[in-house]
Amino acid sequence: MTHEMVSTLRPLLAAEASAEAYxxxxxxxxxxxxxxxxxxxxLDTDGPPVDPQGWLRRAVRSEVRRTRRxxxxxxxxxxxxxxxxxxxxxxxxxxxxxxxxxxxAVRRLPGRCPSLMAALLSPKDLxxxxxxxxxxxxxxxxxxxxxxxxxxxxxxLSPVVAAREPRG
Length: 168
Known about the structure:
73% of the residues lie in helices and 0% in strands. It is an all-alpha fold.
């Protein structure tokens, strides 16, 4: 598309789009953009129109008709379709990454710590009595062992957590 053609057609397109936009229920800028796109597509396939001003007027009216047809078939939702109450995709990825780092660190813990931490993190929400029975240790030693395992876990996770905090 030549610079002269754009310069010549820009004011005409603005005027035509302005005249037609309100009646069609569309934005003037959207209408202009659609016509510019049509012109670019035409230049790719058929070359420049013989009568650019006439082509532009017809393209504007054609685009208005297309917009009206589309609007007739569109129906508004009765309620908002998007559920913004939950975490977004970015937060879900970050949460999954944090869980993965936690579970990786738990697997690297020494001794009985991996099985103890797995039991504590279990979705079954086990009681201390159930955990002690499952691991074969006394319920009284579960607290001190848990504290020791959490200390080890903190040391393993401190480089991961420190790297994720914003600085400055």
